[in-house]
Amino acid sequence: MLAAITPLSDFDRWARTGALEIVLYVTGAILITRFAGWISQRVTGRIDRRALGGDALVRSEAAKHRHAVIAVVTWTFLALVYFITGVLVIQRLGVPLTSLVAPATVAGVALGFGAQRIVQDVLAGFFIVAERQYGFGDSVRISPLGVTTGVTGVVEEVTLRVTRLRTMSGEVVFVPNGQIVQVTNLSRDWARAVIDVPIPVTADVSAVTAALREIGENAFSDSQLRPLLLDPPSVMGIESIAVDQLVIRMVARTLPGKQFDVSRVLRQQVAVALRQVGIMVPTVVETSGPETEQKPTA
Question: Is the model's pTM score more than 0.90?
Answer without folding.
Answer: no
